[in-house]
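Student:
Attend to each token:
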Amino acid sequence: MSYKPSHVQKKTKKYKNTVQKPSNMEEGRVRLFGFRSASSWKMVIAIFYYGLMLMIYVPSIVNEILHYQFTAADVVLTISKYIFIGIFLFSPAIFLSDFKYVDALPFFKKRNFGSCLCGLILVFMFCYFMWNVDLMVMSSRYKDSVIQYEKSLIRQSEEQSTALQNTNTEENTQSSVLETADSD
């Protein structure tokens, strides 16, 4: 059984003792934020946003699992951290879509711009706070592995820039040798 929001049920019109069914847009299907109005430009923006957030979220989880060291408590804190990061990144889909639970949330049940914006700002602040609390209480083993990994990234970057500078220097000396040979 699909969920029918109250604002959709009220829009049915009666014509001569018959009830007109709502249009396909209002059949009671749950619609994800960005796809509710079926406007193509909104759907393109929503696809871009959700895709970009997935491209940020999934590789960060994989990167952390591959390069950091965890204790048992760190695993629980990391899961908690990524739950809050997921809520932070996907809050438009979670709180602005047509889900049944949204009608019970204080800032989101009115469905107007101002209250939804205030609600999203509060959600962002809370998730960011909890995300940072999780980071602060991680073990020293985890924090040391983060520092080591950052140092290795900096070292790799410096090696690449040095190699690029050496390549450019070699090309410049070769071109100057060729120019000198051509002038003779």
